Structures are given as C-alpha cells and as structure tokens.
Amino acid sequence: MRVTPVFLVIILILAIGCKKKTTETSSDCLSRMDFTKITYTDENGLTLSQDTTDWKNDPSWCDIEYALFNTNNLNLSGSDTSKLFTILFPNPLRDVGLIVLIRKKLCPIQYVVVNRSFQVLDTFSIPNVTGTVLKELHFSDSLKYKHGEYYRIYYAAHCTNQLFFFKGHGDFKIE
Questions:
Q1: If phi over 0 gives left and psi between -120 and 50 gives alpha, with beta otherwise, what is residue 103?
Q2: CATH fold of 34-173
C-alpha cells in the first residue's frame, strides 16, 4: 500500500486537532485569586467599600479550596440551613479583628486562614452557631502574619442535609 502525501496531511491535521481534555489544575485556580481586593470596614463593622466576591456564598470552588476543610468528625445533629451573614472588621486591621456571624438556625462553621501562597496559617471552627456570634481573631504572630500583606479567610457552613451549604471567603489586609 502506497501512502499519498494528501493522506499524510489529513492524518497530521487530525492528530493536531485532537487535544486531551484537561481539568483546571491547582495552579490555574490559584492564579485567578486576587487577595488584594478587600471589603473595607471601619472599627464598628460598617462597610466603606465592597469587594463583590467577599463575604458571600460562593457556588463554585476549586478542588484545592474544598481540600482546606476536614468534614470527617463534624457533629451535625440538629443542624439546619438558613441564611448566614459573616464579615470581618476592621479591614484593613492591625493585629485584632472581629468575625461577626448571624444565623437563624443551628449549624457548625469552619474557618481556614491562608496566605497568598495558599499556605494554611490558622484554622478554627464555631460549633452549632445560632443567633449572633462575635469571635475575636488575633493576627499578632509576626512569624505568620506580616504587616502590609493580604490574607484570605475561607468559611464553610454545614448541615445534616448538605455539607458546604454556605461557603465563601473574605480577603483582608494587615497594616
């Protein structure tokens, strides 16, 4: 069988046109994240300017964001979904900030603080949140937190019917 040049060109075009389907890698996901857009708040928690991606439910996370949370030993008994509101103030902050949570129904909420390299710096949780909760956060550890740097707090609320029913992030700066 003799192979013609036209046949070789067709095979070459088909080979070039066939691409392996790729999924988003962790580095692709990380490269899209902008920690420098923050929601500015004053000492009383009033919003001065809003980053539209901060402190709201985020329906689409990358696998690397889900992997920040360990949901294996959560106590979800009696938990239920309802609207959740959370914010950090002041932002930017010096060494101490307050997380405000407002919930109508019971649920545990997990938090993970990361730097721009996506290194986990702190984790904490507030079990069985109902009503209004203020949690004081200290960012005075100079080995972890640098003045002039931006950080991100991820949060995830869970209930018996749905893990991660409310999830998102808030970026902040330490001055």
A1: beta
A2: Immunoglobulin-like (2.60.40)
Domain segments of the chain: what residues?
34-173
Whose CA is closest to 87, among 130, 123, 125, 135? 135
Does the predicted TM-score (pTM) go above 0.70? yes
Which uninterrupted H or E stretch holds 129? strand 120-138
Backbone angles phi, psi at 28, to 5 degrees: -65, -45
Tokens 């009033």 belong to which residue?
46
- HSE-up of 28 (CA within 13 Å, CB side)? 7
pLDDT in tens, 83-129: 778 889 999 999 999 988 877 778 888 999 999 999 999 999 987 76
